[in-house]
Amino acid sequence: MRACCSKFFLCWFHANLKPSLKNVIFIAENGGKSEKNLWPSFSEFSLEQLKGATNGFSSENIVSEHGEKAPNVVYKGKLENGQWIAIKRFNKFAWPDSRQFIEEARQVGSLRSERLANLIGCCYEGDERLLVEEFMPHETLAKHLFHWEAQPMKWAMRLRVAFYLAQALEYCTSKGRGLYHDLNAYRILFDQDGNPRLSCFGLMKNSRDGKSYSTNLAFTPPEYLRTGRVTQESVVYSFGTLLLDLLSGKHIPPSHALDLIRGKNFLMLMDSALEGHFSKDDGTELVRLASRCLQYEARERPNAKSLVASLMSLQKETEVASYVLMGLRHEAAPSTKPLSLTPFGEACLRLDLTALHEILEKSGYKDDEGIANELSFQLWTSQMQETLNLKKRGDNAFRAKDFVTAIDCYTQFIDGGTMVSPTVYARRCLSYLMNDMPQEALGDAMQAQVVSPEWPTALYLQAACLFSLRMENDAHETLKDGTNMEARKNKN
Hints:
The structure is a single chain. This protein is of the alpha+beta class. It is built from 19 helices and nine strands.
């Protein structure tokens, strides 16, 4: 009976899932363990498909190309399903070993983040080596920073670019892909909402030996000049050159910039178009961070996590959408009518985990009422008693904020398979969030919805997980769904 119920709810769950999360593969069996893919899975395209998408690799579809030293071309293409893509076509000598190419591509393709222009596929037929990435319609940072026409990039947007880029690098580092090759203003792209994203193409080496810096030597990390190898510290150095770009609106060599900084003439670095639009304290802080990134000794530079922390406090106009700050046209601007949030919704929006803990602790298990546990006649058997004891120990740990123990006890309870409790999934979800495990938390929040489809808490927690994963658009949509569901429930 339980298996049938689970399958029914699983079918309901997939049928009612919002389109942006349709690709979540959720396994209800095996104690709620799950495989999660929040974007299209990595695919292997045929050369014929990519020829069709680019009109035979027409020169009219070229959006970026390099010189003789790195003759790789990027094309804009459109798949048969209407999806726009960017296709990087490598020089045929860059990856002679197709197995090495596909292995590298699959590793990069396993990354999924709203801070990245995600790699969604590749092709390796004959001598052809091609990568397929999400297409970003609003061009590059170089275009908006150096070659603007209507308006210079606003200070708040420049700070946001730096922050989002630092988040992208931190995410990649956390996934074991901390090396980025030739990081520069052409690698930062803007999506349909005007949000900056880091191209995944730079996570792939341009060749077997990884010698991939093609920029002017004046901008190349000093240790790369000595060893010819990219390190995580090299990436931070390049991040520093991008901070200089954002400060000045020009591509200034680091040596020249550092001379100005040492002479306390950093205001000469600032883009004249920004005059009167930033505070001296903010400018000083960003210059200080750039100079730390550009230290000659690699070990003296900050890491990606430190960059995120430093830039977070500098953010301005956070409530203003990126496309507004950028002055971009936006076909689907969000509604101006504010959403009236419940205390639970407010806590999710703020990602206030302490408040969420208080709410879940206070509500207890009242929302489990009506959940059928067809094995309840076994209440006094030793198996059932052991299961109930596990839940009780988990609850005690949850109440005491010992979230590691709570995860362990709740996992044993769930794996036992004797009882189904959406509240246990909700509590383990929050325990995962408290331990900085948002992917695992999202799986539990979704499982709670499978078991109890009309339970707003499940949607609220999904929103909190998506905020934690920096998937803001999906998080806001899910938060709205939870709020509307709770309003309907209270009306009935």
